[in-house]
Design brief:
With 102 residues, the protein is an alpha+beta fold. Helices cover 38% and strands 28% of the residues. It has one domain: Alpha-Beta Plaits, CATH 3.30.70.100.
């Protein structure tokens, strides 16, 4: 079953600096993670329910299955991306695993 790593970043103090660090450093790290089938990321542009816009940025990484995700997270490349996440993620940012089914 395909799984997806969903990363939600809260509002950064300096949005331009976050976007620069994400694009210049984080994206190249993510692109090296083994087993990633698809990667999408971008700014959240609005909250349709009218509530507070808690999150600023969303990233989604797709993997063939849970084993592929675990292998990716345990790889040196996954470790480098995780370390950089710790450096750029504003407080309250979260990571989730979603199982995609039909």
């Amino acid at each position: 079953m395909t799984v997806k790593l969903v990363v939600l970043y809260t509002q950064p103090e300096d949005p331009a600096a976050f976007e620069a660090a994400y694009g210049d450093v984080h994206v190249p790290l993510v692109e090296k993670i083994p087993g990633v089938q698809r990667f999408e990321a971008g700014r959240i542009s609005g909250a349709l329910d009218g509530g507070e816009q808690t999150y600023f940025w969303l990233a989604e990484l797709y993997f063939a299955d849970a084993a592929a995700l675990q292998a990716a997270l345990g790889s040196p490349e996954g470790g480098a991306a995780a370390q950089h996440y710790g450096e750029i993620a504003p407080p309250g940012s979260r990571m989730f695993v979603q199982e995609l089914g039909g």
